[in-house]
């Protein structure tokens, strides 16, 4: 069980760069620093040294700050072996382990293709850093993968412990849950979650991390075998759907135009 603390560094309109710290050390590990400027402000404010960077995938809003941060520090950059990542030191794929000494933590690497083909996630109980694969209440757009591939990635994440804290990379929760309610209007757990999220956003607070158990109860992309989600998908496409991946493909297409 890892004991590091995690803080969000806000970037762009809705990105979160995650800062991982052990309070006994004056070092920090970052996840997906798409912009160097807010990171530099954070490091100066807390008088921290940048130790390492964990990258989930190659999109600009996740890697844009690497070059500048690398130039001003001796940080080590980890990222997916199947993608082109700036200044990458250690390429990673499924079942690799990343030992971050200042956190006294070992992360297990998971291949989670779908949003991009080389996308990876980092897991150290109870924390999951999943980039744009799984969102609070939703999932990333399917830019490069196939529906069976993306659903397999989400199922892999859903099989982690229910108490896992899901640190995704964007504040999309309200819009995701609005779509989830269109899919499952009678889901009582979803209704309660929407109310909780509304209160957090009214206070200007992040809705991330979420709990994986909560995602399994309210996130339609993790519920492609639930009769209510199947029925909604079939109504949307006006034809029967025989597999969970067909249901996933349908609700992903529905969400793209929602």
Give a brief rundown of this model.
With 258 residues, this protein is an alpha/beta fold. The protein has helices at 36-46, 60-63, 66-71, 147-158, 173-183, 188-202, 212-218, 227-237, 244-256, and strands at residues 5-11, 15-21, 27-31, 49-54, 76-80, 90-92, 97-100, 105-111, 120-124, 127-131, 134-135, 138-139, 165-168, 210-211.
- What's the number of extended β-strand segments? 14
Assembly form of the protein: single chain
The order of strands across the largest sheet is 1-2-3-4-5-6
| Secondary-structure element string | EEEHEHHEEEEEEEEHEHHEHHH
Report on the biggest sheet.
Answer: 6 strands, mixed
Radius of gyration, CA atoms, in whole angstroms = 18 Å
Helix proportion = 25-40%
Mean pLDDT: 97
Helical run tally: 9
Structural class comes to alpha/beta
Inertia-based shape: globular
**Strand portion, in percent?**
15-25%
């Amino acid at each position: 069980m890892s004991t590091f603390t995690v803080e969000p560094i806000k970037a762009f309109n809705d990105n979160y760069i995650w800062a991982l710290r052990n309070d006994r050390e004056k070092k920090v590990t970052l996840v997906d620093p798409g912009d160097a400027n807010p990171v530099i402000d954070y490091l100066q404010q807390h008088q921290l040294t940048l130790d390492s960077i964990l990258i989930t995938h190659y999109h600009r809003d996740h890697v844009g700050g690497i070059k500048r941060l690398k130039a001003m520090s001796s940080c080590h950059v980890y990222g997916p072996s199947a993608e082109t990542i700036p200044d990458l030191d250690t390429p990673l794929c499924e079942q690799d382990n990343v030992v971050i000494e200042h956190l006294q933590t070992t992360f297990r690497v998971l291949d989670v293709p779908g949003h991009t083909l080389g996308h990876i996630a980092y897991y150290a109980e109870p924390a999951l850093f999943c980039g744009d694969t799984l969102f609070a209440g939703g999932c990333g757009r399917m830019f490069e993968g196939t529906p069976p591939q993306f659903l397999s990635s989400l199922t892999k994440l859903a099989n982690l412990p229910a108490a896992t804290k899901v640190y995704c990379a964007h504040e999309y929760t309200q819009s995701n849950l609005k779509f989830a309610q269109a899919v499952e209007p009678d889901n009582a757990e979803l209704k309660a979650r929407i109310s909780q999220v509304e209160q957090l956003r009214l206070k200007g607070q992040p809705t991330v991390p979420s709990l994986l158990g909560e995602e399994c109860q309210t996130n339609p992309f993790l519920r492609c075998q639930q009769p209510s989600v199947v029925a909604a998908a079939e109504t949307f496409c006006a034809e029967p759907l025989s597999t969970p991946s067909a249901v996933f493909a349908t609700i992903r297409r529905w969400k793209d135009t929602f």
